[in-house]
Amino acid sequence: MDWPLALGLMLGTVCFLLAIGLPVAFAFFLTNIVGVIVFMGLDRGMLWLVRNSVAAISNFNLAPIPLFLLMGELLLQTGLAFKAVDAIDRIIRRVPGRLSVVAVTGGTVFSALSGSTIATTAMLGHALLPNMLKRGYHPTMAMGPIMAVGGVDMLIPPSALAVLLGSLARIPIAELLIAGIVPGLIMSVLFVGYIVVRCAIDPGLAPRVEERRYAGRERWMPFLTQVVPLLLVFIVVVGSIFTGVATPTDSAALGCIATAVITLAHRALTWRILRSSLMDMAKVTTMIFFIIAASSTYAQILALSGATDGALAELLKFQLTRIEALLLIIAILLMMGCFLDQVSMMLLTLPFIMPMADKLGIDIIWLGVILLISMQIGLLTPPFGLLLFVMKGVAPPHIGMRLVYRAALPYAVLTLLVLLLIVAVPGLATWLPKLID
User: Helix and strand tally (H, E) in the chain?
Assistant: First the structure.
C-alpha cells in the first residue's frame, strides 16, 4: 500500500472514531487493530500488538505520573491547597484586581505541587470564583485568571503531561520538567501585569471592597505555616532533579513522602482521605497508561506502513528552516487545539514531528517546551478547550459559554506571545536544564 493511502487509513480511522465520541484510548486501540490486520495480518499482527502494548507501559520512566498526581490529590482532599490560597490572600493587598492576582499567585504555587491541570483550575474555581463574583468582579476578570494559571500547571513541575510528552517523544524527562520552570514563571508574571494594568485602567472590572486588615503575626503566620511547607515540597522535587541526587521517578517519590509528612503534621491526613486520593490517582493513571499503550503502537504502525517516512520526505522537499518548521508545527497544534484534547494532539502529531525535528537538528528540550505551550493554548481556545468546560462546570448557571470564551481569550493571546518569545529566544527554555549535574 502506498504511503498516502496508509496515512489516510490510519488518520481517517482515528479521526472518525474520535468524532463519534469514542474515548481517546479506545479510538487509537481500534485504529491499531485495523492497522495491524491490514499491514501485518491477523495472527502475527495481533500478537505483535499485545506484546508492544505491554512493553510500552512496562517503563520505569512512567512512574512519576501517578506519584505527581497523588501529590495533588493529597493536597486537595486534605484541604491544604485551599488554606494555602487563603494565606496568600492575606498578604496581597492594595493591588488593582487583588483577587485575580491572588488567583494567579496561588495557582502558580499549586502548580508547583500538583501534576493535574484540571485539578488546579477546579480547586481555584471552587476557592475563589464565588467570592470574586460576590464582590462585584466582572465574570471575565474572575474566570480568566483562574483558567489561565491552570494552563501554567502543564509547564511548572511536577507536570504529569510533561512526563507523558517526554515518554512519548523520547525527550529526557528530567530536563523537560526543569525547562518548563522559567517559561511558566514568565507567563504568570505576564498574567499578573495584565490584570493590574487592565484593572487600573478600568476599576469597574474589579471593584475595591473594604477588606479586613491583617497585621503582623496574624497576616504572615498563615503564610509561614501553610505555604512555606508546600514550597519545600517543590524544592524537594525540583532540587533533587536539578542537583542530580534523584531521577524524576525518585524525586516524585520524595515529593509524595514530603507531601504526606506535611499533611500528617497538619493533622489533615486520614485513612479515608488517603484511600480516596489513591483511588482517584489510580483512575487517572489507568486512563493515561491505556493512552500510552495505544499511542506507542500507533506510531510504530505508521512507521511500518511507510506513512511516517513518506510524509516526512514530502515535508523536507520544501527545505524548511528550523524556525519555519517550528512555526508550521505551532500553527498545526493551534488549529488542532480548537477541536482536540492535548493527549489526542500528541498522539496524532508526534510520529511526524519528532522525526522532522531530528532531521532538522532542532533541540528536543526546546521543542518539548514549545509543544507544551502550544498545547496549553489549546486548553483555552474555543470551542472545545478543556479548561473552558472545567470553568463552566464550577461557574454559576447564569454564566454562559460565550462569557467563558471571552474570559479566556486575552490569556490565550498572552500565552501565544510567550510562545513566540520562546521560539525567538531558545535559551529561556534551555539554559536551566543545561545546569543539571
Answer: 22, 0
Peptide bond into 64 cis (omega under 30): no
**109 and 88 Cβ atoms separated by less than 8 Å:** yes
Q: How far apart are CA 366 and CA 351, in angstroms?
A: 18
Q: Where are the domains of the chain?
A: 3-435
Round to whole Å and give the CA distance between 199 and 414: 16
Spatial separation of the C-alpha atoms in residues 402 and 406, rounded to whole Å: 6
CB-count burial class (<10 Å; 0-12, 13-18, 19+) for 29: buried
- Model confidence over 207-262: pLDDT tens digits? 876 666 666 677 788 888 888 888 888 888 888 888 878 888 888 899 889 999 99
DSSP annotation of 246 reads S
Report which of 395, 318, 399 is spatially closest to residue 359, judged by C-alpha positions: 318
| CA-based end-to-end distance of the chain | 48
R_g of the chain, CA atoms, integer Å: 22
Closest CA to 31 of 77, 244, 39: 39
Contact (CB, 8 A) for 109 and 184? no
Q: Is the dihedral of CA 178, 370, 188, 145 positive or negative?
A: negative
- The type of residue at 228 is V
Query: At a CB cut-off of 8 Å and minimum separation 6, what does 138 contact?
Result: 204, 205, 206
The predicted-structure confidence for 103-115, as pLDDT tens digits, reads as follows 898 888 887 777 6
C-alpha 227/C-alpha 102 separation (Å) is 13
